[in-house]
């Protein structure tokens, strides 16, 4: 794809004005970093509040054709408890193929519409594929309406609540994975308490033609800085969160990807989703290969694609995400190893530029998640 | 005398010993440096060989031997504080010293004026 065919988000001009270094990403021209640089952008998000343009991601409404609950229908392709979602509640889930492999991961939220309409957000690189797959498998029962006229912003970090609640006090009342409709300075937005950095924060779906003015108002706050794709990646890696197409793909099951928390308890018992045979047998017996957190012992970052070896030098796996964790203060990684090598503390070797570097299997997240969960 | 390569290395020459680092332009392009893999003292390299790797938060980039020679010293301070490459690229952030096999090879590299013109042509 050459640059002339790349798409731009409604915030493109604002990124350029802010000095964003624009690069091709998932068919869009997106800012990889701003003049602050990846390291400072990352740390700023963990200390104050970072603003991310995630408008390239796919936002859509899903409705049923017969007026029944659309969540009950899409559960056929998603193994999480979705039909039980009450209005204003959201869940992380995966879109499965017939083999039980993960086509994509996504957020599903129940809106307040009386029909039980769902609002979903899928990865930018997968949106066409995801929509086609949903249409192919469920198109006779659901309609999927992509929201092409909406931008999506994420405001993440410990100051996010203070910044956003100054514009609409009730966003402070949202708990992690809850969403609501809010009027932010005259603009009707769909706001959720969610994100992909490990920090508390919000994702705000705003009409495209209001996006720039809204972003400017957020950026006017001293604690808010633009954050690019580079820091977005290091933040989610430190938080131990998977990147679609890297830490899993259409061949990898949710069990192998080690995101079984996304599987609903009753859904597992019922086995009522595509690929259930494989997923349930992997749950019982363990997958052949499983994603684990990996901490290199030295200072050398182990990037995606780095071979993982055992103590004899035999190659047993691969790093799927890896780099330097600015808050962690050293290299962090995730990769796939055989289940016998998956226990915490297991020693591994990472083959970086032909040399074996020591590493150990470690628990994730590498940096504690600070979501604002509902108090019990 | 300081010379430069097209790959944005600087070479400071004293007799037949060359101190090598990366330029301010290079460190800015790389961003925050988090790790530098240095060669071993005593190792020999031909001009153009991959001799070192510098890793930023973003990515890994190779550093090539600007000339043929043998490594006589490495900057061990970079192990503890790789950010010296960002904060002091042309002084405290040097990478290694090498004993040149042929000092005359320096004539093939750019002087400061030529390097500035080279960089100007890139932006």
List the helices and strands and how they pair.
The complex is a heterodimer of chains A (376) and B (123).
Chain A (H helix, E strand, L loop, with lengths): L11 H6 L3 E5 L2 E6 L4 H10 L1 E5 L4 E7 L5 H5 L15 E7 L5 E9 L7 E5 L4 H12 L3 E5 L3 E7 L3 H6 L13 E6 L2 E6 L8 E7 H12 L4 E3 L2 H10 L26 H6 L5 H10 L3 E8 L10 E3 L5 E11 L4 E9 L8 E6 L2 E8 L14
Helix pairs in contact in A: 2-7
Chain B lengths: L1 E3 L4 E6 L2 E6 L1 H7 L2 E5 L6 E2 L4 E7 L3 E5 L4 E6 L2 H4 L3 H4 L8 E5 L11 H9 L3
Antiparallel strand pairs in B: 1-2, 2-3, 3-9, 4-6, 5-8, 6-7, 8-9
What does this protein structure show overall?
By secondary structure, chain A is of the alpha+beta class. Chain A contains 9 helices and 19 strands. In chain A, the strands form 4 sheets. Chain A has a 6-stranded mixed β-sheet. In chain A, strands 14-17-16-15-18-19 form a 6-stranded antiparallel β-barrel. In chain A, strands 5-6-7-4-8 form a 5-stranded antiparallel β-sheet. The termini of chain A are far apart. With 123 residues, chain B is of the alpha+beta class. Chain B has helices at residues 24-30, 77-80, 84-87, 112-120, and strands spanning 2-4, 9-14, 17-22, 33-37, 44-45, 50-56, 60-64, 69-74, 96-100. In chain B, the strands form 2 sheets. In chain B, strands 1-2-3-9-8-5 form a 6-stranded antiparallel β-sheet. A 3-stranded antiparallel β-sheet of chain B has the order 4-6-7. In chain B, β2 and β3 form a beta hairpin. At the A-B interface, α2 of A face β4 and β6 of B.
């Amino acid at each position: 794809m050459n640059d002339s065919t790349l798409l731009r988000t409604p915030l493109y001009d604002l990124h350029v004005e802010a000095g964003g270094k624009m690069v091709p990403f998932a068919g869009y021209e997106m800012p990889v970093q701003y003049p602050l640089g990846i390291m400072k952008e990352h740390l700023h998000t963990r200390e104050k509040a970072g603003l991310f343009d995630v408008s390239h991601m796919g936002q859509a409404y899903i409705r049923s054709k017969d007026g029944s609950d659309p969540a009950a229908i899409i559960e056929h392709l998603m193994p999480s408890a979705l039909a039980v979602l009450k209005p204003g509640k959201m869940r992380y889930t995966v879109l499965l193929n017939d083999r039980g492999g993960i086509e994509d991961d996504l957020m599903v939220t129940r809106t307040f519409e009386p029909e039980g309409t769902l609002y979903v957000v899928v990865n930018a690189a997968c949106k066409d594929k995801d929509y086609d797959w949903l249409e192919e498998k469920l198109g006779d029962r659901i309609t999927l309406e992509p929201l092409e006229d909406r931008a999506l912003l994420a405001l993440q970090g410990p100051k996010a609540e203070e910044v956003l609640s100054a514009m609409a006090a009730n966003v402070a009342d949202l708990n992690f994975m809850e969403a609501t409709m809010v009027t932010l300075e005259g603009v009707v937005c769909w706001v959720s308490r969610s994100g992909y950095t490990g920090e508390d924060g919000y994702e705000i779906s705003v009409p495209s033609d209001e996006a720039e003015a809204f972003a400017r108002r957020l950026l006017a706050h001293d604690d808010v800085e633009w954050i690019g794709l580079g820091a977005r990646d290091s933040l989610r890696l430190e938080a131990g969160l998977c990147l679609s197409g890297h830490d899993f793909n259409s061949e990898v099951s949710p069990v192998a990807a080690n995101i079984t928390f996304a599987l609903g308890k009753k859904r597992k018992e019922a086995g009522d989703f595509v690929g259930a045979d494989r997923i349930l047998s992997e749950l019982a017996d363990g997958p052949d290969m499983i994603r684990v957190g990996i901490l290199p012992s030295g200072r050398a970052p182990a990037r995606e694609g780095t071979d993982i070896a055992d103590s004899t030098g035999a190659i047993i796996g691969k790093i799927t995400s890896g780099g330097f964790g600015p808050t962690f203060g050293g290299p962090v990684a995730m990769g796939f190893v055989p289940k016998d090598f998956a226990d915490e503390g297991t020693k591994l070797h990472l083959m970086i530029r032909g040399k074996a570097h020591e590493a150990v299997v470690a628990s994730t997240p590498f940096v504690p998640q600070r979501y604002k969960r509902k108090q019990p | 005398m300081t010379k430069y390569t097209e790959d944005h290395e600087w070479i400071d020459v004293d007799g037949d010993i060359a101190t090598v680092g990366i330029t301010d332009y290079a460190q800015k392009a790389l961003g925050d440096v988090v790790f530098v893999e240095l060669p071993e003292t005593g190792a020999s390299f031909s001009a153009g060989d991959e001799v070192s790797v510098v890793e930023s938060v973003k990515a890994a980039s190779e550093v090539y031997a600007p000339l043929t020679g043998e490594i006589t010293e490495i900057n061990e301070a970079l192990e503890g504080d790789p950010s010296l490459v960002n904060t002091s690229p042309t002084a405290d952030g040097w990478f290694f010293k090498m004993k040149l096999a042929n000092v005359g090879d320096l004539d093939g590299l750019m002087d400061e004026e030529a390097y500035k013109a080279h960089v100007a042509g890139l932006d």
